[in-house]
Amino acid sequence: MAQATTFDTHAFVFNVVSGPVLMPLLDAVATVRRFPDQWSLDPWSDQPQDRGQFVHVPSDWRELDAMARRSVAAQIWRDMSDRDMAEVDAALAGRYAMRFNAITEANAR
Predict the structure, then answer these.
(1) What are the contacts of 77-84 at 24+ separation with CB within 8 A?
(2) Residue 58 domain-assigned (yes or no)
(3) 3-state SS string over the chain?
(4) Structural domains of the chain, count
(5) Which of 7, 40, 59, 103 is most buried, judged by most C-beta within 10 A?
(6) Residue 25, domain member (yes or no)
(7) What is the distance in angstroms between the CA of the first residue and the CA of the last residue of the chain?
(8) Tens-digit pLDDT profile for residues 45-78
């Protein structure tokens, strides 16, 4: 699989109790992997977490080449490896927007 190249150095992670926290990207991913019941890259909801909880969607995902975008999407949804690129991009846009909106809402409080 192609490795996504991004200039992201930080990422928001979501704590199940206290909400979003900005962390260095490597620390964010390590924290989610070590404590998946407490931390997620996705906002917490009533729905069960999926594999996307562990996958960083780069802020510049639209600038990645098609193979890298498909690789990120396939890490979240297994059936993305053979989907049309428009579907892949729409799925990534939705996941990124969900996270961005949750952070924006939390910061507005």
Answers:
(1) 77/51, 77/52
(2) yes
(3) CCCCCCCCCEEEEEECCCEEEEEEHHHHHHHHHHCCCCEECCCCCCCCCCHHHHCCCCCCHHHCCHHHHHHHHHHHCHHHHHCCHHHHHHHHHHHHHHHHHHHHHHHHC
(4) 1
(5) 40
(6) yes
(7) 40
(8) 887 778 888 999 999 999 999 999 999 999 999 8
**Is 75 a domain residue?**
yes
Is the overall model pTM greater than 0.90, yes or no?
no
CB distance 71 to 58 below 8 Å = no
Range of the domain at 50: 10-108
Burial class (CB in 10 A: 0-12, 13-18, 19+), 14: buried
In a domain, 86, yes or no: yes
Q: Name beta bridge partners: 20.
A: 14
With bands split at pLDDT 50, 70 and 90, how would you rate the model's confidence at 5? Answer: low
